Backbone:
């Protein structure tokens, strides 16, 4: 997570230095158009990272349940994972994007471009070069925090960042408790 914050500071400082003599309105328009490319790269990185993890869990469940052998991923699992990821992004994505792009820090196009470019580069590198799963949300959040810190530390709304980190920490234990409660209820009902 810290890697994204450090790398984005370097990227943003380099961008700001390269375009230091540019006209602000023209640069903002150019970075807004460039964000189309980085947003697409983030979408691909999201699919590379989070869809792969989802498919792995489904295939593991199929293998453990005796419904599948080997490590190849059935086509319907790919479609199911892509559909679930798309539906989740469609239903809750705007809220997440608003939190990241407006509540942590108010991003302008050059800063948004730097955050998206850095996060997507890290997502692609870890997926292709290292075959390592990392969190898309944590990577882009770290990049946005790094971008905010380049303005000044007080520009970042650290209370929002704290709430996000707290949610990350509590997600796994709360999911485990929900699963245990569901199992206990189902055990009482069916056994």
Residues:
């Amino acid at each position: 997570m810290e890697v994204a914050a450090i790398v984005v500071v370097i990227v943003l400082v380099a961008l700001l230095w390269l375009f230091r003599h540019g006209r602000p309105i023209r640069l903002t328009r150019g970075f807004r158009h460039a964000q189309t490319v980085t947003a697409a790269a983030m979408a691909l990185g999201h699919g590379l990272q989070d869809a792969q993890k989802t498919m792995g869990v489904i295939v593991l469940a199929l293998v453990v349940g005796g419904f599948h052998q080997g490590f190849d991923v059935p086509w319907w699992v790919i479609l199911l994972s892509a559909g679930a990821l798309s539906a989740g992004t469609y239903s809750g994505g705007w809220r997440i994007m608003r939190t990241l792009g407006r509540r942590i820090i108010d991003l302008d196009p050059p800063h948004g471009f730097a955050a998206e470019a850095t996060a997507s580069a890290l997502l692609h590198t870890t997926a292709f070069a290292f075959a390592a799963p990392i969190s898309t949300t944590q990577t882009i959040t770290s990049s946005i925090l790094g971008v905010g810190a380049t303005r000044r530390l007080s520009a970042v709304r650290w209370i929002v960042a704290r709430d996000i980190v707290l949610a990350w920490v509590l997600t796994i234990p709360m999911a485990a408790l929900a699963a245990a409660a569901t199992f206990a209820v189902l055990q009482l009902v069916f056994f």
Residues 24-64 form the longest helix (41 residues).
